[in-house]
Design goal:
This protein is α/β, with parallel strands linked by helices. Helix content is 52%, strand content 14%.
Length: 272
């Protein structure tokens, strides 16, 4: 029987690229995201590669009851899941005082609680089988504290802590846990990103600045992260840094104050 992977945030970017890669590697796919039409488009592209039709299920990972239903339907369909890829997420940038409590909840409920919900729902299946892999997409922002990314960095530091603690506890039970740490990725993540500023012009400038950064040729692509995920699953790695994130981590260890000063200058914009 083919191994099976469940991918959240599968309708674009990293999730979509990983779906294509794992399909080519012979995996059966369970693809989920909030918008079913986008998922169906990905499913059709997967089939055009000559691979089996994925199971596509709309789900908002912020809602634990929807996640429970997702996992139940996936297990009913395939009988087992081998890999869970937690990928659904939202980016946020701006002065910390400009974020409302609603913003904070949207970011943390998606980036952290969304991961907790899927893990909580699927972990009993993994523990019962004494096998399974959980891959959590964190961020270099979950290793390197970055000014003007406070809610986002908070959520990703939470993912990092969740991943490392799960690894320590579940490895002896046969469940492998891995964290993936990319830098900025050239994808459509800005469509859902939360930008806040001192005024409307500041907010627009921050979004425009990020769009400009994504035009730099050196910025990694979703396929780079997909390859890192495959490396982690295949070789049972506990963490993988993607491309330029290796440099960011190394520089932060050597010059933490300098990195934060440079980040502050780069992202300050109109903040006083």
């Amino acid at each position: 029987m083919a191994p099976t992977v469940l991918i959240t945030g599968a309708s674009q970017g990293i999730g979509k690229a990983t779906a294509f890669l794992f399909a080519r590697k012979g995996y059966d796919l369970v693809l989920t995201a909030r918008h079913f039409d986008d998922l169906e488009s990905v499913a059709q592209e997967v089939q055009s590669l000559g691979c089996s039709a994925p199971l596509t299920l709309a789900c908002d990972v912020r809602d634990s009851s929807q996640v429970e239903t997702l996992v139940e339907k996936a297990l009913d369909h395939y009988g087992y899941i081998d890999v869970l890829l937690n990928n659904a997420g939202i980016f946020a940038e701006g002065p910390v005082e400009q974020f409302s409590l609603s913003d904070w909840h949207e970011i943390i409920d998606t980036n952290l609680w969304g991961y907790i919900h899927t893990i909580h729902a699927l972990l009993p299946h993994f523990i019962q089988r004494r096998t399974g892999t959980i891959v959590n997409i964190s961020s270099i922002g979950g290793k390197v504290p970055t000014p003007y990314l406070v809610p986002y960095s908070t959520s990703k530091f939470g993912v990092t802590g969740l991943t490392e603690a799960l690894h320590a506890e579940l490895q002896p039970k046969g469940v492998h846990i891995c964290g993936i740490y990319p830098n900025l990725i050239k994808s459509r993540f800005l469509e859902r990103a939360v930008f806040r500023g001192e005024d409307d012009q500041d907010t627009k400038s921050r979004r425009d600045q990020m769009n400009s950064v994504l035009e730099i040729p050196a910025v990694e692509k979703p396929e780079d992260v997909a390859n890192a995920i495959w490396d982690a699953v295949k070789n049972h790695k506990s963490e993988v840094f993607v491309g330029s994130a290796n440099l960011s981590q190394a520089f932060y260890r050597l010059f933490p104050g300098l990195i934060q000063w440079v980040s502050q200058l780069a992202l300050k914009n109109k903040d006083k």
